[in-house]
Automatic annotation (TrEMBL):
Secretion signal, residue range per the UniProt entry: none
Catalytic activity from the UniProt record: adenylyl-molybdopterin + molybdate = Mo-molybdopterin + AMP + H(+)
UniProt protein name: Molybdopterin molybdenumtransferase
Pathway(s) of this molecule: Cofactor biosynthesis; molybdopterin biosynthesis
Lineage, highest ranks first: Bacteria, Pseudomonadati, Pseudomonadota, Betaproteobacteria, Burkholderiales
Cofactor field: Mg(2+)
């Protein structure tokens, strides 16, 4: 059995980064990965402007009791006149600061009588002015190549006027479920059958990472069925994920089917629980990851082993999300021959310590643990871990995106 960290590194390096990029309209770029480093082409804000609705003055013009004649009402989007001596220009949040003005008085700090503004409370000189370039300077790096684009990144690029972005082409993923006991939800079920939950689960996980799901197929436990499925999947996809049929049973035909297809097995069995029977193979120069059929095993393997591979193949700069640390809450001593990934819920206690509470049933078929868990706590192999011990925590909000 391969050591977990070694297996993780091996899988992360199993795929090639994308070689093809394309242009994508900004409004469709959510979830895509930048294929170019982008720089600021303008200062932000592009000019000094007001942070408040109020009155622009030249600070030096202020004198106790002075009433400033209102020279202009300059709404955001209008060009201000140059401020005349001892006058004020009525401005609004986002209005440009008139030439000659240096301070904005909030409208609540004064009163306008018959087109004259009297200040009741003088702010500090320079108050409420947002200065040109205080946010971003022309030439600053905005986002690095390999950044996945979310709402925040798109806001930054839109603020710079970018309408088209160079992004990598989307990774094409195919999913293959196996097992004669499985039927699709919606079909009538006989006693010996169960519903296929791994197909929708893996499709959801892949989709959440911004990859394209080309096929979600199901093969019967026969060589012919598996062979036909691999033919389609390898022709259409960059990465194939299979689930089930990878252990040691007589109907565990996935590995032989890959070899039959001309593929080669690169690794099989990792020292992790759940997930031990996971395999990595190559066919047509494409990686195939064979996930164990137990739903919680497939989920854990996807989280810690498959997601880094997908990020790498998407061209993302960060392949391994951060690992956090928390204190495990347990009433028994935990210890296994394999690195164990427990489905846990994490919460901060009053001492600001991350506490990790394990789902009471950790069997690898326990599907109800999946929507409950916020992450996986890693209990290292052959080490006794007790209540309050600090262990690595893989937060699903980071590991599944
Ligand atoms: N003698 C041994 N038996 C097993 C070993 C072993 O080392 N020696 N390993 C166990 C471990 S660990 C795991 S994990 C499983 C994995 O086996 P497979 O990957 O071959 O998976 P299957 O046998 O096909 O299925 C396992 C389990 O999961 C259910 N399943 C499969 N696909 C789906 C699906 N799409 N949706 C819902 N549920 C699914 C299947 O019905 C089985 O109950 O092997 C152990 N056995
Ligand atoms: O390691 Mo298996 O993945 O126990 O369920």
């Amino acid at each position: 059995m391969l050591d977990f960290d070694e297996a993780q590194a091996r899988l992360a390096a199993a795929g090639k980064p994308p070689s093809i990029s394309e242009s994508c309209p900004l409004h469709q770029a959510q979830g895509r990965v930048l294929a170019q480093t982008l720089f600021a082409t303008l200062d932000l804000p592009p000019a000094d402007n007001s942070a408040m609705d109020g009155y622009a003055i030249r600070y030096a013009d202020y004198a106790e009791g002075h009433r400033f004649p209102v020279q202009q009402r300059c709404y955001a989007g209008l060009a201000p006149e140059a401020l005349q001596k001892s006058k004020t220009i009525r401005i609004f949040t986002g209005s440009l600061i008139p030439e000659g003005a240096d301070t904005v008085v909030m409208q609540e700090d004064g009163e306008e009588f018959g087109n004259e503004f009297q200040i009741h409370h003088l702010p500090a000189q320079g108050a409420h002015v947002r200065h040109q370039g205080e946010d971003v300077r022309t030439g600053d790096q905005l986002l690095a190549k390999g950044t996945r684009l979310g709402a925040a990144e798109l806001a930054l690029l839109a603020s710079q006027g970018y309408a088209e972005l160079g992004v990598y082409s989307r990774l094409k993923v195919g999913i293959l479920t196996t097992g004669d006991e499985l039927i699709q939800p919606g079909q009538p079920r006989s006693a010996e059958q169960i519903y296929n939950s791994n197909g929708p689960m893996l499709a959801g996980l892949v989709n959440n990472m911004g990859a394209e799901i080309v096929h979600v197929m199901h093969a019967a436990d026969t060589e012919a069925s598996l062979d036909a499925a691999f033919g389609t999947l390898l022709a259409d996809c960059d990465l194939v994920l299979t689930v089930g049929g990878v252990s040691v049973g007589e109907k565990d035909l996935v590995k032989p089917a890959i070899e039959q297809f001309g593929g080669t097995l690169d690794m099989w069995r990792v020292c992790m629980k759940p997930g031990k029977p996971v395999a990595l193979a190559y066919a047509n120069d494409k990686p195939i990851v064979c996930l164990p059929g137990n739903p919680a095993s497939a989920f854990a393997v996807f989280t810690v082993l498959v997601s880094p591979l997908i990020r790498g193949m998407q061209g993302r700069a960060q392949v391994f999300p951060d690992i956090q640390f928390g204190r495990i809450a347990t009433d028994k001593v935990l210890c296994d021959k394999r690195d164990e990934f427990l489905r846990v819920q994490a919460c901060y206690n009053a001492q600001a310590t991350l506490e990790l509470h394990a789902f009471p049933k950790q069997g690898s078929g326990v599907i109800s643990s999946l929507p409950w868990a916020s992450g996986l706590a890693r209990i290292p192999a052959n080490i006794q871990v007790g209540n309050g011990d600090v262990v690595p925590y893989y937060d699903l909000r980071h590991w599944l995106v």
